[in-house]
C-alpha cells in the first residue's frame, strides 16, 4: 500500500496540502501563534515520512509540483503594492530607510552572534542571508562559500518565527503605523512573514511585499561586505 502511494505522481502534493489544512484547522480552533499552519505542516510531514519509512526523494517527486507555483505567487505580491502606490510615493524616503535599517540590523546581529559563539567563516556566511527569500538566499550562501542546505533551513525557520511573532511584537513595542509594520515584517522574515502582514492589512501586506525585493537586493551587496569581517 505504501509503495503504491509513493509511486503516485501527486503523493507529495496530497500529503503537503492535507498537512497544511490540518495546520489551518488548528490555527482557527485554538488561535495561538504556535499553531502556525506552515510549522504544523512541516512537523506533520516529517512525522509521516518517518513513521511510514518513506524516502524523502519519493515524497519530493510529487511535492515538487507545488514549487512551480512559487514564481507566479511571488509575482502576485506586486498587486497589493500597486494598489498602495500613492502611500509608497508619499513615504518613499522613510520606506527605503526602514528597509535599509532592517537589512543592516539582520547582518549585524549575525556578525555579533558569530563573534559570541566563535563561528567559523563557513557557518557565519551560511547565516548571513537568513532574512531574505530562499531563492536569493541560496545564491548568496553558495557564492560566499556557505552551507546552502543549512541556509535554506535557517531562512524557513526565520520566516516561520516572523509569521508567528510579528503581530505580538508590534503590539509589545507599540508599533501602530501600518507602513512601519509591513516594512519590519518583510525585511525581517521575507515571504512567510509577508503572509502574516497581509492578514494584518492591505498596507502592511503591500509594504512587506516591497521589502522582500529591496531587502533581497541590499542583502546581496551587504552580505558580500560583511563576509569579510570574519
TrEMBL record:
Specify the superkingdom: Bacteria
Q: Which residues cross the membrane?
A: 6-26, 38-59, 65-82, 94-117, 144-166, 206-229
- Keyword presence, Transmembrane: yes
Topology term for the membrane: Multi-pass membrane protein
UniProt-annotated location(s): Membrane
The alphabetized UniProt keywords are: Membrane, Transmembrane, Transmembrane helix
**Protein name per Swiss-Prot or TrEMBL:** LrgB family protein
Organism field:
Fusicatenibacter saccharivorans
Lineage of origin? Bacteria, Bacillati, Bacillota, Clostridia, Lachnospirales
